Amino acid sequence: MADEKEKAAPAPKGGGGGALGMLLPAVIAGAAAFGGAKVAGAHHAVAPMASEQKEAAKPPGPTLALDPFLLTVPDASKKAHPMKVTIAVEFEGAAGKEEGDGFKPLVPRIRDTTLNYLRTTSFEEALDPAASDKMRNDLLERIKAAGVPTAQRVLITDLVTQ
User: Residue 51 and residue 138: Cα distance in Å, rounded?
Assistant: First the structure.
């Protein structure tokens, strides 16, 4: 009998609201879609600016890759560690020039300056990733001071320590 009463009882209404119950979720969904489109559109507006900045950057000039430097550097306890460093020097000018032939007379001067600088480097400095920018800037200043004023950038292409 209790089962018959449950079946016979009308199902309760879901809180009503009628048109408002159907309209409110649609308005919220539309607002969310509009907000998402605005945010996505704002991100796309920034992307062309970034690509314009990349285009505005100067293309690399002729580059001179040097043979590796092999030396020993001391750590804080004066223990010697072998180190191998390979650098390339980028010069001002158009990249279409012959990259190796015009700079051959400069190689001994650049190697001497670089080797003198690397000998002052400690093992801990060589291991520190934050010191890479300082090393590049110091090398560039020294290379320019050694009589290579067209040097524009120093690239550390390989650095291995043990």
Answer: 30
pLDDT per residue as tens digits for the range 79-137: 999 999 999 999 987 655 555 567 888 899 999 999 999 999 889 888 888 888 999 99
DSSP secondary structure code for residue 83 in this structure: E
Rounded Cα–Cα distance for residues 138 and 87 (Å): 13
79, two tokens: 């223990």
pLDDT score of 60: 79
DSSP-based three-state secondary structure for 60: coil
Phi/psi for 44 (5° steps) reads: -70, -30
Q: What is the DSSP letter of 97?
A: S
Helix (H) or strand (E) holding 32, with range, is helix 19-56
27 vs 97: which has the higher pLDDT: 27
In whole angstroms, what is the distance from residue 127 CA to residue 111 CA?
22
Q: How far is CA 7 from the centre of its chain?
A: 69
Spatial distance between the Cα atoms of 122 and 28, rounded to a whole number of angstroms: 62
Cα separation, 116 vs 124, in Å, equals 18
The helix or strand, by DSSP H or E, that contains position 51, with its residue range, turns out to be helix 19-56
Q: Which amino acid is at 15?
A: G
